Amino acid sequence: MKNFVIMTMLFCLCIACTGCGSSDNSGQLADQQTQIAALQADLAAIRTQLVSAQGQGNTYSAGIDTAIASLTLTQNSLAQLTGQPASTANTIPLTTASNQVIVLQSLADSLTSNTATAAAGGMTGTKDATIASLNATVATLNATIAGMVATPVLMSASSLTAIVSTSITVTATFPASLNGKSATFSSTGGSLGSTSVVIASGSASTTFSSATAGAFNIYAVQGAYAGGMAVYVSKAPDSFAYVVNALSNNISAFSIDPVTGALSQLPGSPFAAGSYPISLTVTPSCKYGYVVNSPDGSNVIVTAYAINSSTGALAAIGAPVQIGSNPGVAPFPFPLYRSTVDPSGLHLYVPNFMDSKIYVFNIAPDTGMLSSVAGSPFPTDNYPVALVFDPAGTHLYVTTSAGGSGDGTLSVYSVDGSGSLTPIFGSPFVRDLASMSLPANSIVMDPLGKYLYTPTNDGKIAAFSIDASSGAPAPLMSIGPNSGDPLDMIALKIDLSGNYLYSFGTNVPGGGDLMTSTAKASTLSIDRATGMLTQVGTPLGSAFYNLFPSLTMSPSGQYLYGITSAGAISIYGVPVSSGALTPVGSGAAAGTFPIDIVTIKIP
């Protein structure tokens, strides 16, 4: 049975039937008669394939099943074919997609019925009768479609995509000889502003909107002239990306396309974020975000922002909160304050690099306002940089730098219900994690809380196992993420499954300048039984220098976003089967010197 041939033909049919035009893309203006001819040819080919199914023994029923599936695809394709008024000879006007669907549905029902009869009969005679019936049905369909005649008109829209309950303008362009006559608009769903519009200056326009998401066909007919197009209505975006721009003093905000991963700048973006913003963290509810700034080199502050659940817009709330000082430090945006919120969303933790303390705040659930936790700030080892919680929120892990000695540490704290920190036995754990010149500004834990990963001072990634009872880390291994070679600055992210670790780091040529460095994106598989890492594929390079990399993943887990110092946002696809990254492109540009990127999905 030639199942593959049938499916291939229908794939071609889908391509042939998706012509919808916009005013700025003449390549989409497919001639309607050509489409109809191609459709007839494809249906005739399907008929031939059904005939060839006769006498093929046990493969016969499977062949008919394939035909049913193929013709169902045909039905869906016809629903996107531009509307055609019927000729006077037609008894069933095919002016809308709904009429087309009725015809194809009748064919599918007939095929279903005949297939059941053939399967039950098991006799050659029954099979022959079934094939004859199928031939007659498809021949009738060909004759019906042959009666569809019209002169196509151009259809365009203010946008081919829209958000639910927002309007777009649809325009049909007619010959000037039809001025003063009324064009009739129809759609396969949603609402039209007007269904009858007088043609003026060679065109007629109406508005379209839908309260539900989906693909919709819109048609315009005037006498022997007809056109149609498809528009797609999606639900309001609920996934957003935010990029902290240290030197333009703002945050670029984007909506995330759930299908393509593409980023679209939000209205009002970029949002003001004070002087020298460094990092952003968001509560699990996605209601509030907190930005750390080092505005003058002497002070470090935290500002709370409300996140609009409908638009993703940011709005500062309350006055900034002081978290300490950086005496003698120039106001340069080093990523030294990677704050985090505990899994409960009730406490904010901010490391102060220069005074070696962690500031802890209560978060008011109803307002997002901050108040200090009793005992805050809590002392830590020298120069704390990055923080991560275990999934239960009972332990906090902190990377620190021991200055020029290179003996960075991994400090671990138990966390009580009030948010207070207590070092666990043995903390800090020395692991040569970072030096002051290359701070370990990233730390991640797998979704089950069994393994922890952080950059090392020598440009590698260190892996630790975590004791389930005490929370203490035990070193497992270190690996260079650049095909075994080290990178100079590394940001890390674990995928939602916990099967893969991604790194986005700086590759500085020997003796080179950081400002001439490039970005490298790498994939490492995680052995779920041992936590050990193995390189997957070849690291992907970026042409942009990457002084302080930052990395995040789309809420769906399908795309990875890495920012470079040049302001570009690199987008990578994440195949579930292999985890190997695939370059998708560079998203919308961020501001000047982007230094942190965060993604959220509104619950």
Structure description:
With 603 residues, this protein is α+β, with helices and mostly antiparallel strands. It has three domains: 3-146, no CATH class; 153-234, Immunoglobulins (Immunoglobulin-like), CATH 2.60.40; 243-601, 7 Propeller (Methylamine Dehydrogenase, Chain H). Helices cover 17% and strands 38% of the residues. It contains five helices and 41 strands. Strands 1, 3, 5, 7, 9 and 10 form a six-stranded mixed sheet that branches. Strand 39 and strand 40 form a beta hairpin. Helix 1 (3-16) runs antiparallel to helix 2 (32-52), helix 2 runs antiparallel to helix 5 and helix 4 (97-121) runs antiparallel to helix 5. The protein is elongated, with a radius of gyration of 31 Å. It starts with a helix and ends with a strand. The model is unreliable at 1-33, 57-62, 79-105 and 433-438 (pLDDT under 50).
Helix content: 10-25%
Number of domains: 3
Structural class assignment: alpha+beta
Task: Assign an overall shape.
Answer: elongated
- Strand portion, in percent? 35-45%
Keywords:
603 residues; disordered N terminus; five-stranded antiparallel beta sheet; alpha+beta; 3 domains; 38% strand; Immunoglobulin-like; Methylamine Dehydrogenase, Chain H; 41 strands
